[in-house]
Write a sequence for this structure.
């Protein structure tokens, strides 16, 4: 797949735009380690990434900041991301999950899930649905697989 590479995380936008523009899919986003780094600083090209994703796809938070249906993502990110990003993060919908993030994924629709760490049980759920390929693993703002 196109994301099985070690290029900079948001360089993939060029490929993404060509292949999936006008393709209705769900995008699930973690926050820590994906949109902000371990120092709570925004990753490179985060505004461009959020703009593209929220414009072209159905975006959902899949983060502990939205666990059990609460949406604390905006409050958490408003002083960590550039001001230009705030209008895009307001468009991202919360999810409702309790134990595993995979509880919130709609497996009947095409999706990508951006996360830096998933539990073995979550990986097993993805395998059961033959969707491990839909996980975009991010480490230090780089894609891994």
């Amino acid at each position: 797949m196109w994301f099985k590479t070690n290029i900079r995380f948001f360089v993939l936008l060029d490929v993404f735009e060509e292949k999936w523009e006008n393709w209705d899919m769900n995008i699930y986003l973690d926050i820590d380690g994906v949109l902000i780094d371990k120092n709570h600083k925004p990753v490179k090209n985060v505004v461009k990434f959020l703009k593209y994703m929220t414009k072209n796809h159905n975006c959902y938070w899949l983060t502990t900041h939205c666990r059990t249906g609460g949406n604390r993502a905006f409050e958490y990110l408003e002083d960590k991301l550039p001001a230009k990003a705030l209008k895009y993060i307001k468009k991202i919908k919360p999810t409702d999950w309790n134990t595993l993030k995979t509880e919130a994924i709609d497996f009947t629709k095409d999706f990508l899930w951006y996360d830096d760490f998933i539990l073995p049980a979550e990986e097993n759920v993805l395998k059961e649905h033959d969707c491990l390929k839909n996980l975009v693993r991010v480490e230090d703002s780089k894609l891994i697989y």
Remarks:
- Residues 46-56 form the longest helix (11 residues).
- Strands lie at 26-29, 58-61, 111-115, 135-139, 142-144.
- Residues 9-144 form a domain with the Rossmann fold fold (CATH 3.40.50).
- The mean pLDDT is 84.
